[in-house]
């Protein structure tokens, strides 16, 4: 039974990877085709990369990955429409009043979601709007400083996305969701409010940038709690850090590789435990250890993914398979 040793074939939900358009060739592309069923742009669909000026959209990279997906029969998950960190400077610095701000964002959402209608099956409409304690993020967040009721603004963003592509699944995405009860509570309140006020939402993502040492019980219980919203669940940016002490002399020994594989197995097992109808996808944030955002953000010696620098399956891949 060949499907039993391939994660894409074995999984009964999406298996995604964050990709960069410029790398979509050679072994990188072959690995994606063989082991993954969907892709997400690591930056290609972020606002600052697309929206160069009010009437100036750069589609080059986003189109590239959408075309790659179409050619290879893969789905695209769009990331992300509204993220405090990716407002282009020309927009951020304009200090628009709330009505002007919203008109422009509405146009942006309609333009982007409309362009990829039927080609991007799902969107992170909003990303990282809460702090871990459940309060709204203030620092560097143009939405927070512009709106008295930011949640209602985000609700309308979900509406604009739905109007532009009624079939797209619409997600709210954040990090530390299964660890931080405060953030999860705020997300639940937002979902309840959306339901009460008639704003659409289909799913919730937890990025899952965790460590091999992250407490298993907390993750399992957090996922169960998240799934009790009844929404689709996306493990949306999975990578697992192993060099947790940022040790410059760290060596990725077989014993460390085994720990890494074990962590993947456990996380996938917990995802499998939520109701089948709510499993949207597991997306790893990258393809191989050759290039990962963690080597700049975390530590140069980091080995977070399923494939090694030569695109060979790591023991971690077996761990993922065992969890399925
Ligand atoms: C990161 C990318 O991986 C980097 O290449 C980029 O420079 C910055 O953004 N949470 C998110 C992602 O939602 O969009 C981030 O991606 C990682 C953290």
From TrEMBL:
Top EC group: hydrolase
Catalyzed reactions: Endohydrolysis of (1->4)-beta-D-xylosidic linkages in xylans
Catalytic site: 237
Claim: Mitochondrion is one of the keywords in the record: no
Domain GH10: 1-323
EC number: 3.2.1.8
Membership in a protein family: Belongs to the glycosyl hydrolase 10 (cellulase F) family.
Protein name: Beta-xylanase
Species in which this protein is naturally found: Belliella calami
């Amino acid at each position: 039974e060949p499907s039993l040793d391939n994660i894409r074939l074995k999984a009964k939900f999406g298996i995604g990877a964050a990709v960069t358009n410029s790398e979509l060739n050679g072994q990188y592309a072959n690995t994606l085709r063989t082991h993954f069923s969907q892709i997400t742009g690591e930056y290609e669909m972020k606002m600052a990369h697309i929206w160069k000026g009010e009437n100036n959209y750069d589609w080059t990279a986003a189109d590239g990955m959408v075309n790659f997906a179409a050619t290879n029969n893969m789905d695209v998950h769009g990331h992300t429409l509204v993220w405090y960190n990716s407002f282009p400077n020309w927009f951020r610095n304009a200090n628009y009043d709330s009505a002007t701000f919203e008109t422009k964002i509405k146009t942006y959402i309609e333009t982007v979601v409309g362009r990829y209608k039927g080609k991007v099956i799902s969107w992170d409409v909003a990303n990282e709007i809460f702090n871990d304690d459940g309060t709204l993020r203030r620092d560097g967040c143009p939405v927070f400083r512009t709106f008295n009721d930011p949640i209602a603004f985000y609700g309308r963003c979900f509406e604009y996305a739905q109007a532009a592509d009624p079939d797209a699944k619409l997600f709210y995405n954040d990090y530390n969701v299964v660890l931080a009860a405060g953030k999860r509570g705020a997300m639940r309140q937002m979902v309840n409010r959306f339901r009460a006020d008639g704003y659409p939402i289909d799913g919730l993502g937890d990025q899952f940038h965790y460590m091999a040492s992250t407490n298993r019980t907390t993750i399992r219980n957090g996922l169960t709690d998240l799934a009790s919203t009844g929404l689709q669940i996306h493990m949306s940016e999975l990578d697992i850090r192993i060099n947790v002490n940022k040790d410059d002399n760290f060596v990725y020994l077989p014993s460390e590789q085994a720990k890494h594989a074990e962590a993947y197995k456990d996380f996938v097992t917990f995802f499998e435990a939520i109701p089948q109808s709510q499993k949207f996808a597991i997306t790893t944030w990258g393809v191989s250890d050759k290039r990962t955002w963690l080597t700049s953000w975390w530590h140069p010696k980091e080995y977070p993914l399923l494939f090694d620098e030569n695109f060979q399956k790591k023991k971690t891949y077996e761990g993922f398979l065992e969890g399925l």
